Amino acid sequence: MSIPLMIELLGSKDKVIFTLCKIGIKDSQDAQAILDYLCKNPNLLDEFESIEIEEYDNDGQQMALTMFNSSLYINVKTMTIVMIAFLLDINLTSGIAALSLSLLGVNNQALATISDDGEKCVLRETLLRKPRIGDANILKSYKGKCQRINSQCKFRNGELCNCSQNAIINIYENLTEKSIFKRSEDRKRYIYQW
């Protein structure tokens, strides 16, 4: 795989939000949500990605109710933005995000074809891990409790998740066919490959 497409976001919060909208985020509220998530979850970043936030006082005085501005420097792979948009159920338009998918050889509809029938949950949980490797036990920590109560997932029964280990393996296999994962050498784990 080639060097990942990187994007550099620099300036005020408003400028960063505007830039996110220019690269394919549908509206400023979605861009704000992505920025907030990125700042609150720096553990999602790879070692060559970075976020720096510098807050400074408008008038240089130390008042309790002073409004702070932020200067941001964010250097991330466009796939990180795409991944966060997916985690937050944000739809992408065209732009660099779609280009990034196509450069990786991913069908433009790949994220759109990820179903609510367990695929979104398995993918989300794997994306939140470091390293991004999953197996049949990926949902075990939830002890059978559904994490997406509003979804129409076939495994959801009220507040319970009935997704078995065999179903999880089938889900990983489907996601592997969509080129989102590849199997490990021992064929027991699935490695995120974007």
Describe what you observe in this structure:
The chain has 194 residues and is an alpha+beta fold. It has two domains: 6-103, no CATH class; 119-192. Helix content is 32%, strand content 19%. It contains six helices and eight strands, in the order E-H-H-E-E-H-H-H-E-E-E-H-E-E. It has helices at residues 13-22, 28-40, 78-87, 96-103, 119-127, 165-177, and strands at residues 6-12, 50-57, 68-77, 133-134, 156-157, 160-161, 181-183, 190-192. The chain has a three-stranded antiparallel β-sheet with strand order 1-3-2. Strands 4-8-7 form a three-stranded antiparallel β-sheet. Strands 5-6 form a two-stranded antiparallel ribbon. Strand 5 and strand 6 form a beta hairpin. Helix 1 crosses helix 2 and helix 3 packs across helix 4 (96-103). It is globular, with a radius of gyration of 19 Å. It starts with 5 loop residues before the first strand and ends with a strand. The model is unreliable at 61-68 (pLDDT under 50).
